[in-house]
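Work package 3, deliverable 3.1, input record:
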Amino acid sequence: MSAPILRVEALSKRFRGLLAISDVSFAVEPGSITSVIGPNGAGKSTLFNLVTGYLAPTAGTVSFKERTITGLATNRIAELGVSRAFQIARPFRDLSVAENVRIGALFGKAGARDVAATTREALALAGMTHLADEPASVLTVGQLRHLEVARAIATRADLLLADEPCAGLNPTETAAMIDVLRRIRASGVTVVLVEHDMPSVMEVSDRVLVLDAGRLIADGAPAEVSKNPQVIAAYLGTPD
Amino acid sequence: MSQRPALFVAIILAAAVVLAALPLVLPPFYVRVGQLMIYSAGLAVAWTILGGFAGYASFGNAAFIGVGAFTAGLVEERFASLPTPLLLPLGLVVGGFACAVLSAAVAYPILRLRGTFFAIAMLGVCHVCAELNNNLDVLQGSLGLNFPSITPAGWDPATFFYELYLVAGVIVFLIAWQIQRSRFGAGLLSIREDEDTARMLGVPTERYKRIAFVVSAVLTGLLGVIYAHSLGYITTDSVYRDDTNLNLIVYSLLGGLGTLFGPVIGAFMLVFITQVVLARLLDFHLFATGLLLVVLVLAAPGGVLGFVKSWRLKRRYAARVPAE
C-alpha cells in the first residue's frame, strides 16, 4: 500500500450547539474513487469545507500528501493540488466555458504549466470541447456540472473533491458524468465524491464512507457497506 | 486584440498622437474641455483597475487625489528653490508614495468588506482624509496651498496641461491594459465573478485585491498631483470632491463596467455632455444629467459596451436558429 494522499485524523467541527463532524478519521489511497454518503445533514459538505480550508476544524487534522494542511488558506491548499467541484455550480457567468476553465489552468496547483494545453485537455476530459465558446450563463444544469469538473481538473489537482456531481441529473447525464469521473481517475487523479445517487455510488466507487449525524459509521467496499445493518438503519430508520 | 499586443499599442499611440495635435486646431474652450475629458478618463481607468476588473467599486477615490495633491504641494513648497522642471517630478514621486502608503495601510481592513460596504467604507476614508487635511493646520487644507507654475516658457498653460494629462492618461491606460491581459488580471476577473470560487481555484485573492487597490490608488494620486498644478491653488474642497467620487462610478456605468474602454467612453461622453451640450443650461444641467443617467442605466444596464455586446450575442443566436 502506498502512502495515503489524504489523511483525516480525529476531525471535529462544532457549530455552536451542533456537532457537525464528530471525531472522523479516514485515509484515501491515491488513484482511487472514494464516495462519502449519508443522509441529509450528516456532515458531508462540512467535511469537504474542512478539507479545502473553507472552514477551520474545532479539533483534529487534515493532511495532504503527508503534509498537514489544517489552518491553511483555501488558495494555499489549492496550490498544493486539491480542487473542488461544487454541488450548486458556481461558474463565472460573464465568461465563456473555455475562459472559466482557463482560470483554473492559470492558477491552481503551483508549478510550470502550458495554460492553453491544460485548458484544452480539461475541456476534452469533461467532454466540453464543443461548448468551449459558449457563455457559461447559457449552459444547462448538467453542462454546468461538467464545467465545474473541467475547471477543477484544469488546476492540475491531484485530489478532486466533487460535491454531488450527479444530483439532479437525468439517467443519460448521470452516465456521462460517471464516465467523466472514471476518465479522471484513469488520468491519475484521486477522486472523493459526495453522492446521493446510490446506483452511481455503487457503480463507480472503490470505497465508500458512510457518515451519519457527523460520525463515520461505516467504511469499506461498496458491496460490504450496502449490507451493513447500521447503514441501512441510518438511511431507512430502525423499526421501533 | 489580445493576440496582437504590438498592433494594439500602435493603435493607442496613433490615437494619442491625433489627440495631442488637437490643441493646434481647437479653440481654447475646447482645449479646456479636452483637458477635463482626458483627466476624467485617466481617473476612471485607474478606478477600474480595482472597481471594474476586481469588482470592488470604490466610492472614495478622491481621497487619493487629495492626499497626492497635498503631499506634493507641501513637499514642493519646502523645495521651492529647486529648478522648476524638477518640481513636478518631485511632486509625483512623493504624492504617489503617500497614496501607496495610505492605500496599503487601509487595504487590509477595508478589502474584507464586499460590495456596498466596501464602497461606503471608501467614502468614509475619503471624508476622514479630507477632515484631517482641513483641520490639521500644518497640512494647510483650509488655508489653501499654492502650486508653482510649471508651464515652460512659450507654452499656453491650457495646452501644456492638456498634453500632460494625455501622456499620463495613455500611461495609465497601457498599465490597465497590461494588467487586464495578464494572469493577475485573470485573477482579478475571477474575484469579481465569484471570490470564494476564485480562492478555491488557487487565486491568492487577498494579495491580488491589495495590489490592485494600491496600483489604483497610486495612479489616481499621480493624476491628482497634475490636477493640483493645473489649478495652481487648492483647498480641501477643491480636491476631496464627492462629485468626483460619484462620477468615477458613473463613467464606468455609462461606458461599460469592468471593461477597459468603458470608463474612457463614459468619461468622454459625460464630460462632453455636461460641459458642452448642457453648458448653456446651468440651472437645468444637473437635472438633465441625472435624467440621462437614469435613462441610460434602464435602457443599457451594461453601458455602451454592454449594449454592443448583447446586440452581437443576439445576432449570433438569431443567425443560428434557422440553421437548426
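Chain A has a mean pLDDT of 91.
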